[in-house]
Design brief:
Subunit structure: Heteromultimer composed of small subunits (RfcS) and large subunits (RfcL).
Protein name: Replication factor C large subunit
Largest sheet: 5 strands, parallel
Distance between the termini: 63 Å
Bound molecules: adenosine-5'-triphosphate
Number of strands: 7
Number of domains: 4
Keywords: ATP-binding, DNA replication, Nucleotide-binding
Number of helices: 20
Order of helices and strands: HHEHEHEHEHEHEHHEHHHHHHHHHHH
Family: Belongs to the activator 1 small subunits family. RfcL subfamily.
Strand order of the largest sheet: 2-3-4-1-5
CATH architecture of the largest domain: 3-Layer(aba) Sandwich
Shape: globular
Function: Part of the RFC clamp loader complex which loads the PCNA sliding clamp onto DNA.
Length: about 450
């Protein structure tokens, strides 16, 4: 068994790092009642989200049902599996049944059509606790996200990971040099699964690990795009660049964008101009590769983008900031924005019984003006989240404040309600037992509300 599985944390206390997230999760579970929101655990892969959910269930003696494969994500299947289990008592006699929805940021794919809506319905009606897991909270459909309490898992820093790796070496009887431990902890970038895999991979056939063994293991494994771009800009040899380009997982059309981002950082205009000219030639070859389905052309494209850029960059002394191309980030933001817009238009279409397209083309400006005059009423009526309101009133910051204020008011109202139930009980006790002398506070009138309409 590989070590990532062998050392999967069994109890919450075994989870490395993320103390406050684990605490938040435990508090949620301890106080759980059926009107409590489900939890959305999010964060990058390999940092313990799934393990934490299982460990929580084990610590509390809860049963766990996991739904993760996309073929289980059709509306009917979700309703059948999670819907029924969420409202019936556990057969095994466990106190509760924890429903785990992994890959919650992947509910809208082809096989999942209807998934997000089904999950939103289940969440609203479930009488059992639910944990959703996602890498990116914003990838989760807004109608689901806003029903959840969000708990962020963060990448585990190398200084917390190193002692953990040392412990594993000790229990495996493996000697590992401090420098090797440090390198593994840092190379993992917070991903504990990847650190364990690297340690396990390097340990095969050895009882001692030195930093040089690690290099050998890393060389055997795939090189990262970071190595490839750094080596290209530092002007490494043609052979080395071609070898690295075969090892990276990224396809040439992704690599070309990374190089473009790095080449654009040259101070000298001629380097930028020559580099970008070469990239545009490489891009032509890539286009032809796809159009003609003739993959031999990839080689020309790779050679031109890598060897060409290395020639242009050699001797520049540039140490580029290696970051994913800004265009991807902008595309991600645009995609997110589009999702918010679509969910808003669908909500309006449903509320006013007007087709979504008509809303988009004819009514959005009008509704936006009305919403601007009375945003909180609009939120109440249409059940909007901060992103949707921000889009409607064209002001993200104001929308955030309004939603926060409304959540606060809702909490206060909840407390007031609980208080008035208590007062009623005390009043009843007083009537039954007049000798008791407690004063009954006056009941406040309910908040006024007006209708939002157009
Ligand atoms: N915080 C942690 N403490 C201890 N071990 C961990 C932790 N995070 C990850 N691991 C190790 O990595 C393995 C994978 O972790 P897990 O499946 O919980 O990650 P994840 O965040 O849910 O990742 P993914 O998003 O890919 O599902 C575990 O079996 C465990 O060995």
């Amino acid at each position: 068994m590989d070590w990532a599985e062998k050392y999967r944390p069994q109890r919450l206390a075994d989870i490395v790092g993320n103390t406050s997230a684990v605490h938040q999760l435990l508090e949620w579970a301890k106080d759980w009642t059926s009107d409590r929101k489900p939890v959305l655990l999010y964060g990058k892969p390999g940092i313990g989200k799934t393990s934490a959910a299982y460990a929580l269930a084990r610590d509390l003696g809860w049963e766990i049902i996991e739904l993760n494969a996309s073929d289980q994500r059709t509306k009917g299947a979700i309703e059948r599996i999670a819907g029924s289990s969420s409202v019936t008592a556990s057969l095994s006699g466990a106190l509760r049944r924890l429903i785990l929805l992994d890959e919650a940021d992947n509910l809208e794919g082809n096989a999942d059509r209807g998934g997000a809506k089904a999950i939103a319905d289940i969440i609203r009606h479930s009488r059992q606790p639910i944990i959703l897991i996602a890498n990116d909270a914003y990838g989760v459909a807004p109608e689901v996200r806003k029903l959840c309490e969000q708990v962020q898992f963060r990448a585990v820093p190398a200084r917390s990971l190193a002692p953990y790796l040392r412990g594993i070496c000790a229990s495996e009887g493996l000697q590992c040099d401090e420098e090797a431990i440090r390198m593994i902890a840092e190379d993992a970038h917070g991903d504990i699964r990847s650190a364990l895999n690297m340690l396990f991979g390097t340990s095969i056939g050895r009882d001692h690990i030195a930093p040089s063994d690690l290099h050998a293991y890393q060389k055997d494994s795939r090189s990262s795009i970071f190595d490839l771009i750094a080596k290209t800009i530092s002007g490494s040899s043609d052979d080395q660049l071609i070898r690295l380009s075969r090892e990276v997982e990224d396809t040439p059309d992704a690599v070309i964008q990374w190089i473009e981002a790095a080449i654009s950082q040259h101070r000298e205009g001629w380097r930028r101009a020559s580099g970008l000219t070469l990239l545009s030639r490489a891009d032509l070859y890539l286009g032809r590769t796809f159009r003609r389905q003739y993959y031999t052309l990839w080689r020309y494209a790779s050679a031109m983008m890598l060897i060409g850029s290395a020639t242009v960059s050699s001797g520049s002394g540039l140490r580029p900031r290696l970051a994913p191309p800004g265009r991807w980030q902008r595309m991600g933001q645009a995609r997110r924005q589009k999702q918010v817009r679509l969910s808003l238009e669908n909500r309006l279409a449903e509320a006013y019984h007007i087709p979504q397209r008509t809303i988009s083309e004819e009514y959005l400006t009008l509704i936006s003006r009305i919403a601007d005059d009375n945003p909180s009423q609009c939120v109440r009526l249409l059940n909007l989240d901060a992103d949707q309101l921000g889009l409607l009133i064209h002001d993200k910051v104001r929308a955030g404040k309004i939603i926060k204020e409304m959540e606060k008011q809702a909490k206060d109202e909840e407390k007031r309600k609980k208080g008035s139930i208590k007062v009623k009980e005390e009043k009843k006790t007083l009537e039954e037992n007049p000798s008791s002398e407690r004063k009954v506070p006056e009941k406040k009138p309910p908040a006024q509300s007006t209708l939002f309409s157009f």
